[in-house]
Every structure is written in structure tokens, then in C-alpha cells.
Request: fold
Amino acid sequence: MIEMQDVFMTYPNGVVALNGISVKINQAEFVYIVGHSGAGKSTFTKLMFREEVPMKGKITVNDQDISKLKWKDVPYFRRNIGVVYQDFRLLPKLTVYENIAFALEVIEETPKNIRKRVMKVLDQVGLKNKARFIPDELSGGEQQRVAIARAIVNRPSILIADEPTGNLDPDTSWEIMRILEEINSGGTTIVMATHSKEIVNTVRKRVIAMEDGIIVRDEHRGEYGYEI
Amino acid sequence: MKFSTLKRHFKEGARNTWRNSWMTIASIGAVTTTLILVGVFLVVILNLNHIANKLEEDVQIKALIELTAEQTDVDQLEADIKAIPKVDTVEFLTKEEELENLIESMGEQGQAWTLYEQDNPLNDAFVVQTTDPLDTEDVASQIEQMENIKSVNFGQDYVDKLFTFNQYARNVGLVLIFALVFTAIFLISNTIKITILARKKEIGIMKLVGATNSFIRWPFFVEGMILGILGSILPILIILIGYYYLERSGVTIQQFNFVQILPFNPFAFQIAGIIVGIGVCIGVWGSLMSVRKFLKV
Ligand SMILES: Nc1ncnc2c1ncn2[C@@H]1O[C@H](COP(=O)(O)OP(=O)(O)OP(=O)(O)O)[C@@H](O)[C@H]1O
Ligand SMILES: [Mg+2]
Reply:
């Protein structure tokens, strides 16, 4: 569960990115965040992940008040949240398997568990046969699937996806959506910022629309609602 | 920390050291230069200090008594000298004993002095030792002002000069070494900064998936440590070999009453230990400096 109460966020350069946000997202919900470029979608997701700290307001994630989180506790908090970006962020020299295993190695998981979980998650995103490939040998959609696999390998309760289909063609995007829905059906909350009208209007979910740092619309089974 | 994790950190650290070979060589060179100077400086300063201390232990005041003094005056003098609080021992030395000492100490040439045995030109004297060698000068001047004292002399003069020189050398050396240490730290921190920049993406992903700061920091510590240790190898060899031959050549400086330099074992090994220690500190400090600001995300 994610809850924000009256959250304000100003970047150090003075840009006001969020101007009073209050919202509640329940466990296992699938939420789209839509809005024009610069509306504050990415900032909104960054706050949930403690990549940015709000100037004002309270953010609760899984019953934990993260505005009060100490620096040293942040890494442990993050282990409960998976993140996927438009640009995949894979390590180019590591294989698919190593890229995913990396996420478990750095949180000091045992080698035995690492092997087991990586294989399982590779199966989940349908890339078992490409475990030994390096990112450059994969299509964009496959790379994004690796990134998703890495994000969920630690079995987080929340998956944040900031424009996960932003760099992908429509066919590949549908593939990614199918995987995200599958993950969601397993009980993982998904918060996805997107510019894709097709996706939002086809795979109907809750839609939160933002403009100039505030929420202007919040509907269940909503529509994209903007012309592109 | 798990053993497998530690192994991983060391592997990473070693790989980074290897990867920016040019910067690595530059910073190892800086550490090496610094540590050679630190080593030589320590050897010189500690030995000079050792010699000065040894000499100072031997510093005695010799107060020559006027020939005209009567026995009662001498007794009075002895009582007065003993009454000075800082005085440890007072020994009466007859002029005959003194001549004997002199003849003995001069060896061959001393034979000429035997002529004086009949008509001894020397004075009776008190040999005074102070509790603290540093009070020697003070006590000497007090005795000098007493009645029936002809003159006072003591070996403090060149011990003082030695101490002064030593202090001067130490100050100049410290300034030089601080400058060098900071240069070395700066170079190491830059070397590591390059590694960090090269691995910025990797670090970003580590933070993304919840790696702790100390986990991220470790390989850079290791890299700094490796640079420090590699930089201390040559200085240690130079000090060990150099000091070994220096001691074997048996340098004893005549002016310093044949005081020996500090023995190779354990002194040279202690210096070697200090050199590695400083090397590691420089390395770790350098890495700390460059890692710190990259982790604030
Ligand atoms: N790191 C930053 N420093 C300063 N200002 C920033 C930073 N990141 C974002 N901003 C500003 O904050 C505002 C909101 O940005 P944000 O990235 O949240 O928008 P967005 O809705 O994700 O846009 P897009 O659809 O283009 O990704 C913008 O005006 C942006 O310029
Ligand atoms: Mg954005």
C-alpha cells in the first residue's frame, strides 16, 4: 500500500515538481500515471522509491513512514520495491543471467538462492533460452523483459515502471504489458507512468492524471483522456 | 559480512586497479616517493633523537674547585650543591683521580701527561648529575655562582645543538611529508574517481536494487588499499636493505661518543610497519574522499 498526504516537491534548482499530492494506492492495484511531459509523473514515482525526498508531506509505503526513513535504512526499504525504466539500465558486459543475478548478489543473497530465483524469473519473462546472451544481442523488448526480471527477482511487493514501453514498438509493448499484468495478478502493486494512449485505453486500469504537479483526475478503469 | 561477499569486493577492487593502469601507476609512484621520504626521514630523526638521548644521559656537570679552597669550604660546597633540589648525585673527584682518567682516556698521547703526576695542574672537582637531564644547564649555572668554584663545564652544549638541529629537521621534514602525503591522497582519490565514473551506471543499478552504501564502497576501499600497499613495497625494500648495510658498516660517529645507531632488528621492521600503515591510510583516505559524494543518492 502506498499513501501520500499533501506532498510537495521542489527540486534544488527551484522547479516545483509536485504541488500538493494526496493519493492512496492499495496492494495489488495496477495504476497508470498519465500527463504531459513535465507534469511530475517521474517525480511522483521517485518519491515512492525514496530516490527523492519530499519538501513537505507524508509518504507511507507498506505501513512505513518513508519521509522519516534514515539514510542507512533506505537500501533495505528499496529491496521491497522493483523499478523499471524506459532505458532498461542493464549492464552491457554482463549476460542476461548475470544482470539479474547482480541484483541479488549486491543484497548478499546466497549463491544457491540466486541460481534458483534467477532461473525462475527468467522462465516468468520467457527468456530462459537467452540466459547467456549479453544485452546487445537482444531486441529492445527482450532487454526490457530482462529489466523487469531483475526488478521482480527479489519478489518486491511494489513494481514501479516509468514509461516501460517508451522505447518499444507497439507489438513489443503488448508483450511487456502482458508480463506486467501477470506480475500484477500475483499480488504485486504496479505503478506505471506512461504516454501510451493505446495501452491505457485498451488494458483498462485505474488512471491518475497529473498536470503541473497536481492530480487532476483519478478514475478506476479510466481512459487516457488526452489528445496526442 | 559473508566470505563470498568479501571475495567479491577484493576481486572488484583488484580488477579496478588493473583497469586504469596509467592512473594506477601515477598514484603508486606518488605513494612510493612519499613513503621513501617518510622512511628516510623517520630513520634520520629517530636515530638523531636516540643519539641525543643517549648523550644526554651521560651529561654531567663538572665543577672545578678553586685551589685556594680549604677542606671546610669544600665540605660546605658539597652540602650546598646537594641542597639544590634537582641534583641527583654529587661525587668528589680529586685532582689525582682526574689526571688518571685523563691519561687513560687519551691513550698513547696521554703518556705525556704522566709528567704532571708530580706537579698536578688540575683542580679537585665535583661531578654532579641531575635527576632530569633537562635541568643540567640550570643547575650548572647555580653552582657556578657559588663561592670557591673556579669554573663549571658540562657537555650540554653540543647536545643542545643536536636537539635544536633535530627539532628543525623534524619541522622541515613534517611540512614536506604532509605536502607529499596530500599529493598522494589527491592522486589516489582521482584514480578512484575515474573508476567510479566508469562504473557510475553500475553503482546506480546497485542503489536501485537496494545495495547498501558500505557494500558499494568496499571495492573502492580495496582499490585504495591495494594502491597504498603496492606503493609501499619499494620504500620498504629500500629501508630494509639500506639500513641493514648502514648498521653493518658500523657507523658510529666519533663526536657522538661512539653511540650506536638503533639496531636493525626491530627498528627497520618497525619503520617498515609504519610505512605500510601510512601507505594503507593514504590509500583508504584517498578512496574515501572520492567515494563519499557519489553515494548521496
Ligand atoms: N533532477 C531534477 N532537477 C531539477 N528539476 C527537475 C529534475 N527532474 C525533473 N525536474 C523538473 O520537474 C518537473 C517534473 O518533472 P518529471 O520528470 O516529474 O516530469 P514527467 O511528468 O515525468 O515528464 P516526462 O513525461 O517528460 O517524463 C519538470 O519541470 C522537470 O523539469
Ligand atoms: Mg518522466
Notes: The pocket of adenosine-5'-triphosphate (ligand 1) is lined by residues A 11, 13, 15, 17, 35, 37-43 (CB under 6 Å). Residues 105 and 111 of chain A are 8 Å apart (CA to CA). The interface with chain B takes residues 51, 71-72, 75-79, 83, 89, 91, 102-103, 105-108, 110-111, 150, 154 of chain A (CB under 8 Å). Chain A has a mean pLDDT of 94.
